[in-house]
Amino acid sequence: MSGSVPAPRGTVLLDLDGTISDPAGGVYASFRFALEQVGKPWPDGEPLAWIIGPPLRESFMLLLDDPEKAAAALQHYRTHYAAGALYDNRLYPGMAEAVAALADDGFRLYVATSKLVGFAEKIVARFGLAPRFERVYGSSLDGRIDQKADVIAMCLGTEDIDPETCIMVGDREHDVNGARANGLDCIGVTWGFGGAEELTAAQALTLCERPADLPGLIRQVIDARLAVLPSET
Protein backbone atom coordinates (compact mmCIF):
# COMPACT_ATOMS: atom_id res chain seq x y z
CA MET A 1 0.00 0.00 0.00
CA SER A 2 1.12 3.56 -0.64
CA GLY A 3 1.83 5.93 2.24
CA SER A 4 -0.30 8.74 3.61
CA VAL A 5 -2.10 10.53 0.77
CA PRO A 6 -5.08 12.85 0.39
CA ALA A 7 -8.59 11.39 0.22
CA PRO A 8 -8.97 9.33 -2.97
CA ARG A 9 -10.01 11.48 -5.91
CA GLY A 10 -10.37 8.65 -8.41
CA THR A 11 -8.82 5.39 -9.57
CA VAL A 12 -6.30 4.67 -12.31
CA LEU A 13 -5.66 1.22 -13.78
CA LEU A 14 -2.28 1.08 -15.53
CA ASP A 15 -1.23 -1.55 -18.03
CA LEU A 16 2.31 -2.84 -17.50
CA ASP A 17 3.95 -3.97 -20.77
CA GLY A 18 4.25 -1.06 -23.18
CA THR A 19 2.84 1.42 -20.67
CA ILE A 20 4.95 1.32 -17.52
CA SER A 21 7.88 -0.59 -18.97
CA ASP A 22 9.35 -2.02 -22.17
CA PRO A 23 9.63 -5.82 -21.75
CA ALA A 24 10.67 -6.58 -25.34
CA GLY A 25 14.08 -8.11 -24.62
CA GLY A 26 12.87 -10.79 -22.24
CA VAL A 27 9.54 -11.43 -23.96
CA TYR A 28 11.09 -11.89 -27.38
CA ALA A 29 13.82 -14.19 -26.08
CA SER A 30 11.34 -16.36 -24.19
CA PHE A 31 8.93 -16.47 -27.13
CA ARG A 32 11.68 -17.61 -29.50
CA PHE A 33 12.85 -20.21 -26.99
CA ALA A 34 9.33 -21.59 -26.60
CA LEU A 35 8.77 -21.95 -30.33
CA GLU A 36 12.13 -23.66 -30.78
CA GLN A 37 11.17 -26.20 -28.11
CA VAL A 38 8.01 -27.20 -30.00
CA GLY A 39 9.74 -27.41 -33.37
CA LYS A 40 8.63 -24.15 -34.96
CA PRO A 41 11.46 -21.62 -34.70
CA TRP A 42 10.55 -18.00 -35.36
CA PRO A 43 12.22 -16.74 -38.59
CA ASP A 44 15.03 -14.23 -38.13
CA GLY A 45 13.98 -10.74 -39.08
CA GLU A 46 10.26 -11.34 -38.65
CA PRO A 47 8.64 -8.72 -36.37
CA LEU A 48 7.57 -9.70 -32.88
CA ALA A 49 6.04 -6.53 -31.44
CA TRP A 50 2.54 -7.91 -32.06
CA ILE A 51 2.93 -10.49 -29.27
CA ILE A 52 3.17 -7.83 -26.56
CA GLY A 53 -0.36 -7.06 -25.40
CA PRO A 54 -2.57 -10.03 -26.32
CA PRO A 55 -2.70 -13.07 -24.02
CA LEU A 56 0.21 -15.38 -24.85
CA ARG A 57 -2.09 -18.39 -24.85
CA GLU A 58 -3.91 -16.86 -27.83
CA SER A 59 -0.70 -15.99 -29.66
CA PHE A 60 0.66 -19.52 -29.41
CA MET A 61 -2.64 -20.99 -30.59
CA LEU A 62 -2.66 -18.59 -33.54
CA LEU A 63 0.79 -19.69 -34.59
CA LEU A 64 0.64 -23.40 -33.81
CA ASP A 65 -3.05 -24.23 -34.39
CA ASP A 66 -2.70 -27.14 -31.99
CA PRO A 67 -3.92 -26.95 -28.37
CA GLU A 68 -1.31 -29.40 -27.06
CA LYS A 69 1.61 -27.65 -28.78
CA ALA A 70 0.28 -24.25 -27.71
CA ALA A 71 0.05 -25.38 -24.08
CA ALA A 72 3.58 -26.83 -24.25
CA ALA A 73 4.92 -23.63 -25.80
CA LEU A 74 3.30 -21.54 -23.09
CA GLN A 75 4.94 -23.66 -20.41
CA HIS A 76 8.36 -23.38 -22.12
CA TYR A 77 7.87 -19.63 -22.33
CA ARG A 78 7.06 -19.34 -18.63
CA THR A 79 10.03 -21.49 -17.64
CA HIS A 80 12.45 -19.37 -19.68
CA TYR A 81 10.87 -16.10 -18.55
CA ALA A 82 10.93 -17.08 -14.87
CA ALA A 83 14.60 -18.07 -15.13
CA GLY A 84 15.53 -14.42 -15.53
CA ALA A 85 14.19 -13.08 -18.82
CA LEU A 86 11.46 -11.18 -16.98
CA TYR A 87 14.15 -8.80 -15.73
CA ASP A 88 15.31 -8.01 -19.27
CA ASN A 89 12.92 -5.12 -19.03
CA ARG A 90 13.31 -1.34 -18.79
CA LEU A 91 11.19 1.29 -17.13
CA TYR A 92 10.12 4.00 -19.57
CA PRO A 93 11.80 7.31 -18.71
CA GLY A 94 9.41 9.48 -16.74
CA MET A 95 7.03 6.71 -15.69
CA ALA A 96 8.31 6.43 -12.12
CA GLU A 97 7.75 10.16 -11.70
CA ALA A 98 4.30 9.98 -13.31
CA VAL A 99 3.21 7.15 -11.00
CA ALA A 100 4.57 8.99 -7.97
CA ALA A 101 2.75 12.19 -8.94
CA LEU A 102 -0.57 10.36 -9.30
CA ALA A 103 -0.17 8.53 -5.99
CA ASP A 104 0.82 11.72 -4.16
CA ASP A 105 -2.18 13.48 -5.69
CA GLY A 106 -4.57 11.01 -4.04
CA PHE A 107 -5.40 8.63 -6.88
CA ARG A 108 -5.85 4.94 -6.10
CA LEU A 109 -3.46 3.08 -8.42
CA TYR A 110 -3.62 -0.49 -9.67
CA VAL A 111 -1.72 -2.44 -12.30
CA ALA A 112 -4.03 -4.29 -14.71
CA THR A 113 -2.04 -6.48 -17.10
CA SER A 114 -2.49 -9.59 -19.22
CA LYS A 115 0.90 -10.77 -17.95
CA LEU A 116 0.87 -13.59 -15.41
CA VAL A 117 0.25 -11.87 -12.09
CA GLY A 118 3.28 -13.41 -10.37
CA PHE A 119 5.62 -12.10 -13.06
CA ALA A 120 3.96 -8.68 -13.00
CA GLU A 121 4.35 -8.36 -9.23
CA LYS A 122 8.08 -9.13 -9.45
CA ILE A 123 8.62 -6.57 -12.21
CA VAL A 124 6.72 -3.82 -10.41
CA ALA A 125 8.73 -4.56 -7.25
CA ARG A 126 12.00 -4.61 -9.20
CA PHE A 127 11.35 -1.07 -10.40
CA GLY A 128 10.58 0.09 -6.86
CA LEU A 129 6.98 0.94 -7.75
CA ALA A 130 5.16 -1.55 -5.51
CA PRO A 131 4.57 0.97 -2.66
CA ARG A 132 2.75 3.25 -5.09
CA PHE A 133 0.22 0.64 -6.19
CA GLU A 134 -2.52 -0.78 -4.00
CA ARG A 135 -2.37 -4.10 -5.84
CA VAL A 136 -1.23 -5.76 -9.07
CA TYR A 137 -3.85 -7.62 -11.12
CA GLY A 138 -2.91 -9.98 -13.94
CA SER A 139 -3.75 -13.25 -15.64
CA SER A 140 -4.01 -16.47 -13.65
CA LEU A 141 -1.78 -19.51 -14.00
CA ASP A 142 -4.74 -21.76 -14.82
CA GLY A 143 -5.94 -19.52 -17.67
CA ARG A 144 -9.25 -18.74 -16.00
CA ILE A 145 -8.35 -15.03 -15.97
CA ASP A 146 -6.62 -14.34 -19.27
CA GLN A 147 -8.28 -11.57 -21.29
CA LYS A 148 -7.70 -7.91 -20.38
CA ALA A 149 -11.45 -7.45 -19.87
CA ASP A 150 -11.40 -10.25 -17.27
CA VAL A 151 -8.43 -8.73 -15.45
CA ILE A 152 -10.14 -5.34 -15.29
CA ALA A 153 -13.42 -6.90 -14.15
CA MET A 154 -11.62 -8.74 -11.35
CA CYS A 155 -9.94 -5.53 -10.20
CA LEU A 156 -13.14 -3.48 -10.25
CA GLY A 157 -15.12 -6.13 -8.40
CA THR A 158 -12.53 -7.01 -5.80
CA GLU A 159 -11.67 -3.42 -4.96
CA ASP A 160 -15.23 -2.06 -5.19
CA ILE A 161 -14.14 0.64 -7.63
CA ASP A 162 -16.59 3.23 -8.90
CA PRO A 163 -16.41 3.13 -12.74
CA GLU A 164 -17.55 6.77 -12.87
CA THR A 165 -14.23 7.95 -11.46
CA CYS A 166 -11.94 5.28 -12.89
CA ILE A 167 -9.78 5.37 -16.02
CA MET A 168 -7.67 2.73 -17.77
CA VAL A 169 -4.28 3.61 -19.27
CA GLY A 170 -2.69 1.36 -21.88
CA ASP A 171 -0.83 1.12 -25.17
CA ARG A 172 -2.84 -1.48 -27.14
CA GLU A 173 -6.34 -1.92 -28.51
CA HIS A 174 -6.78 -4.74 -25.97
CA ASP A 175 -6.58 -2.14 -23.20
CA VAL A 176 -9.18 0.07 -24.86
CA ASN A 177 -11.53 -2.83 -25.62
CA GLY A 178 -11.09 -4.40 -22.19
CA ALA A 179 -11.85 -1.09 -20.52
CA ARG A 180 -14.93 -0.54 -22.67
CA ALA A 181 -16.26 -4.00 -21.81
CA ASN A 182 -16.25 -2.86 -18.18
CA GLY A 183 -17.77 0.57 -18.73
CA LEU A 184 -14.46 2.44 -18.58
CA ASP A 185 -12.69 4.83 -20.91
CA CYS A 186 -9.04 4.33 -21.77
CA ILE A 187 -6.25 6.83 -22.29
CA GLY A 188 -3.94 5.46 -24.97
CA VAL A 189 -0.19 5.98 -24.60
CA THR A 190 1.80 6.18 -27.81
CA TRP A 191 5.24 5.20 -26.47
CA GLY A 192 4.35 1.50 -26.29
CA PHE A 193 3.62 -1.14 -28.91
CA GLY A 194 0.22 -0.21 -30.35
CA GLY A 195 0.79 3.29 -31.64
CA ALA A 196 -1.56 6.18 -32.32
CA GLU A 197 -3.28 4.59 -35.31
CA GLU A 198 -4.25 1.40 -33.45
CA LEU A 199 -5.39 3.29 -30.36
CA THR A 200 -7.42 5.80 -32.37
CA ALA A 201 -9.10 3.02 -34.37
CA ALA A 202 -10.03 1.32 -31.07
CA GLN A 203 -11.54 4.64 -29.91
CA ALA A 204 -9.30 5.46 -26.99
CA LEU A 205 -10.66 8.46 -25.09
CA THR A 206 -7.54 10.48 -25.86
CA LEU A 207 -3.84 9.91 -26.55
CA CYS A 208 -0.82 10.71 -24.42
CA GLU A 209 2.57 11.11 -26.07
CA ARG A 210 4.86 11.50 -23.04
CA PRO A 211 4.85 10.01 -19.53
CA ALA A 212 5.37 13.51 -18.15
CA ASP A 213 1.98 14.54 -19.58
CA LEU A 214 0.06 11.59 -18.12
CA PRO A 215 -0.69 12.89 -14.59
CA GLY A 216 -2.12 16.16 -15.88
CA LEU A 217 -4.23 14.40 -18.50
CA ILE A 218 -5.65 11.98 -15.92
CA ARG A 219 -6.41 14.83 -13.51
CA GLN A 220 -8.25 16.66 -16.28
CA VAL A 221 -10.40 13.63 -17.16
CA ILE A 222 -11.22 12.60 -13.59
CA ASP A 223 -11.80 16.13 -12.30
CA ALA A 224 -14.23 16.81 -15.16
CA ARG A 225 -16.22 13.74 -14.12
CA LEU A 226 -16.19 14.61 -10.43
CA ALA A 227 -17.52 18.06 -11.29
CA VAL A 228 -20.74 16.65 -12.77
CA LEU A 229 -21.35 13.84 -10.27
CA PRO A 230 -23.97 14.45 -7.56
CA SER A 231 -22.43 15.56 -4.27
CA GLU A 232 -22.85 13.26 -1.27
CA THR A 233 -24.82 14.79 1.53
UniProtKB/TrEMBL annotation:
Q: Which Gene3D superfamilies match?
A: HAD superfamily/HAD-like, Putative phosphatase, domain 2
The residues forming a coiled coil are none
List the InterPro entries hit by this protein, alphabetically: HAD-like_hydrolase_sf (IPR050155), HAD-like_sf (IPR036412), HAD_2 (IPR041492), HAD_sf (IPR023214), PGP-like_dom2 (IPR023198)
Top-level taxon: Bacteria
Q: Which PANTHER family match?
A: 5'-NUCLEOTIDASE, PHOSPHOGLYCOLATE PHOSPHATASE
Give the protein name, as stated in the record: HAD hydrolase-like protein
State the organism of origin.
Rhodoplanes azumiensis
Taxonomic classification: Bacteria, Pseudomonadati, Pseudomonadota, Alphaproteobacteria, Hyphomicrobiales
